[in-house]
Amino acid sequence: MSTDSQLRLVWVYPDLLSTYGDRGNLLILAHRAGLRGLPVASVEVRSDQALPVDGDIYLLGGGEDGPQSLASQRLLADGGLHRAVDRGAVVFAVCAGYQLLGNSFYAKGTECRGLELLDLTSDRGPSRAVGELAGDIDSRLGLPRLTGFENHGGRTHLGPEVYPLARVTTGIGNDGQTEGAWRGKILGTYSHGPALARNPALADLLLRWATGSMLPPVDDAWPDALRKERLSAVAS
Ligand code: GLN
Predict the structure, then answer these.
(1) Which superfamily does CATH assign the domain made up of 7-235 to?
(2) Residue 192 carries which DSSP code?
(3) Where does the record place the CobB/CobQ-like glutamine amidotransferase domain (predicted)?
(4) From 124's CA, which of 31, 98, 137, 224 has a CA 20 to 30 Å away?
């Protein structure tokens, strides 16, 4: 965490990367930090602005193909996200934001260069993956089942340098088998919804990575009820 002990949340390019309620991820992180008495500063950085490098958690959302390739070009030119990662920042990326962290992805039929922060590539699938997404998360992360909503045309193939975030039980995720990826303090997922409203334990993992400390438990009756409802909807 930064020296002034405020948790700095950086929402990357909301003008390009913010579909299906992804802004909720920023709100949930700020809310859950606040419940633990952690002071938070949220910064929204448009794609025509320089990315601050002193953030603690960087959030990238989903986007259609055009905005996605523009976002990738601008992030590569800016270089700030790489510098932030080098200083140990946490990155949480959804769908288009997740794909562009990889080595390459397809947008509008063209192969685009990614940021090479995660060892993965994305290409196009036979059909669009739309609907509920659920999976059993990598046990090393100690999280309950992932639940979310996916809507993407791409399929993602993981290289040896990353771990799958989850094994898919409902939906497609990366390729029908695995969903999302993580390495170090960078984590990507196809789960919209927004992901952190539906997976508050995932929000707490990001907060733990950013602060380097355990967090006291909070009353999760409401998000637990939402999770139960969504997970039972896919089980039936
Ligand atoms: N454009 C990407 C795809 O279709 C990402 C879509 C999204 O972010 N929802 O695969």
Answers:
(1) Class I glutamine amidotransferase (GATase) domain (3.40.50.880)
(2) B
(3) 9-199
(4) 137
